[in-house]
Amino acid sequence: MLRLIVLRFPEISQTPTRIVLEFVVFSTAIASSTSLLFFAFRTIPFFNFHTIYFWPTTNLWLAVCSTLLFIGFYECYYTLTKWRENSLQAEAYKREVLLNQLDVLKNQINPHFLFNSLNSLSSLISEEPRQAEQFVDEMARVYRYLLQTNEKNLTILKNELDFIRSYYHLLTMRYQSGVSLTIDVSTDYHTRRLPPLTLQLLVENAVKHNRVQASKPLKIRIGTTPEGWLEVRNNLQPKTIRVPSNKVGLTNIAAKYRLLGELEPVISDQDGHFTVILPLLAPETV
């Protein structure tokens, strides 16, 4: 009977209804059982309990108290179990939504990067054939890394730094001295981990939204904070004509950190600089 009630009213929001039905059913069952038991003791010669007295009020209180005690323990256990189950389901759903969002963002990023690279290559082929050949080599190295890591959740910082150097090489072929990159990261941090392609997204974001010219270079610096976080910083020199932005890069990075259950990046725009501070995860244990 208890199983039928729970199956019919399983949700936490249905607890009052479930408790009322449990109380009616079990108090009736206990009262009926004790009444039959007393009757059997008094009437069946085998028991020989002719002097035992049956008090209806006592029997009723016994049924009520026993039922309340049982329902109290059972409902506490059931509610806790149901709450845990709902929490796990909610987390699984949130994770699935984030994964779907991340897949969409990945599909947006790779074509965008390829489009920019091919545009640069097209210009170099006609103007600087030798540089175009070098550009193709660096682009192959960059895309090899993209293909190897884009499906991974984490990669070590050293790999990201090596990759961003190749990516920066592509940028210098396109913008020459209009962009500069400084990397000041101790080797002590090289085995720390972060989501792959994070640095490329931030550098690309800086180039996209700022003027890149030799007379006033875009300066990008990658370093670490005293707390051991990674800091990516660039001077702000917004383009005269604002570039439409759907914030794919920053959204992608934040989504990856949320998916990992880690602290999200800290973004600031002040004192003429745009700064993103990224948590670095502990090295992978063997």
UniProtKB/TrEMBL annotation:
One of its GO terms (molecular function) is phosphorelay sensor kinase activity. Keywords: Membrane, Transmembrane, Transmembrane helix. One of its GO terms (cellular component) is membrane. The chain crosses the membrane at residues 20-40, 60-80. Residues 101-177 form the Signal transduction histidine kinase internal region domain. Pfam families: His_kinase (PF06580). It comes from the Bacteria. The keyword Iron-sulfur does not apply. InterPro entries: Bact_2-comp_sensor_kinase, Sig_transdc_His_kin_internal. This is Signal transduction histidine kinase internal region domain-containing protein. It comes from Larkinella humicola. The lineage of its organism: Bacteria, Pseudomonadati, Bacteroidota, Cytophagia, Cytophagales.
